[in-house]
Amino acid sequence: MIDHVKPKQHSLTMQNRKQLDITGVLNVESFDNEEFLLKTELGHLTIRGQNLHIKNLSLEEGLLSIEGHVSFLAYLDPGSSSKSGKGILGKLFK
């Protein structure tokens, strides 16, 4: 029997560093007006900036829109393992 695995889809579209549209979002781990931590189809994503807020969120469709001033985007190292005993914050603050 052949399993048809849905390919992972994830994209980012930013407009003038003021609006960020993201697809492939599995979960919003945490957020405030300066930082978002997301779990996406292709790994954990950190977004930092000022006056960040959610414009639109649909986890069923995997869509997230953020407004504010975006100053930083980074994916956590995919080689790091959660078996190390560190959670997502531990990975960020090595």
From TrEMBL:
InterPro entries associated with the record: Spore_YabP, Spore_YabP/YqfC, YabP_sf
Lineage top rank: taxon: Bacteria
Gene3D superfamilies: 2.60.40.2000
Protein name: Sporulation protein YabP
Organism: Paenibacillus gallinarum
Recorded name of the encoding gene: yabP
